């Protein structure tokens, strides 16, 4: 009984520490995405271009400052984003997102397959209805349709 109590009391601080670490770490959504990095680089480079334009009134120098600032900021932010390694919880989240994308893609493919099958069934139903309408019209025109399913082929066979 005391061993269970001691092992349980040891697990509680470990669980509490693990939960505290998970709460401190930002979730996957909090990390910078590529479009965020590019947009931040654009904002900083526009700021640099405005400062150069105010100071020099030279359009070519302003454009050069914009380009250089954009590239430098983009490289620095991308490098900083690459230095962060995902921990176990982020890896699990990435795996869940990958599985969810696979499931969504499978659902889309299945929906497309069902849609195509539905179209084929509709076309077949339309063709059957057209054939039935044509048969009914042909039977009324000739007066040979008896409605009991007999045909001339059967009559010919019985005469032999």
Description:
Helices cover 84% and strands 0% of the residues. It has helices at 2-24, 34-56, 59-83, 88-142, 152-159. The relative contact order is 0.05. The mean pLDDT is 80. The protein has 160 residues and is mostly helical.
Q: Topology, pairings included?
A:
Layout: H1 2-24, H2 34-56, H3 59-83, H4 88-142, H5 152-159
Helix pairs in contact: 2-3
In a few lines, what is going on in this structure?
This protein is an all-alpha fold and 160 residues long.
What key attributes describe this structure?
mainly alpha, 160 residues
SS summary, helix count: 5
Instruction: Note the beta-strand portion.
Output: under 5%
Which sequence of SSEs, written as H and E, runs from N to C?
HHHHH
- Report Rg: 37 Å
| Total number of strands | 0
Q: Tell me about the largest β-sheet.
A: none
Helix content: over 70%
Average per-residue pLDDT, rounded, comes to 80
The low-confidence runs, each spanning 5 or more residues with pLDDT under 50, are none
Shape: elongated
What is the rounded distance between the termini? 99 Å
**Structural class, from secondary structure content?**
mainly alpha
